[in-house]
Amino acid sequence: MKELSFSVLALLVLQSLLGLGSTGRNFRLMKQKVFQYREIQSFKEVYYRRKLHLHEAAVTETGPVEGYIKQPLDHFNRRNNATYNQRYWINEEYWQRPHGPVFLFIGGESSLSHFAVMVGEHVELAQKHGALLVALEHRYYGGSINPDGLLLDNLRFLSSQQALADLASFHLFVTQKYNLTSENTWICFGGSYPGSLSAWFRLKFPHLVYAAVASSAPVRAELNFIGYNKVVSQSISDPVVGGSVKCKEAIVEAFLMVDHMLQAGNISQLEKDFSSCESLKGSDDYMEFVSNLADLFMGVVQYNMEIPGNDISKLCSIMTDEKLGTSYDRLMVINQKNMERMALICVNNSHEKALEDLKRTDLSLVGVGERQWYFQTCTEFGYYQTCEDKSCPFSQLMTLKSQVDLCSQVFGIPADSVQTSVQFTNEYYGADHPKSSRIIFVNGNIDPWHALSVLKNQSHSELAIFINGTAHCANMGSPKPTDLPSLKKAREEIAVHVGKWLKTAKLNIVGK
Question: For residues 180 and 102, is the Cβ–Cβ distance under 8 A?
Answer without folding.
Answer: yes
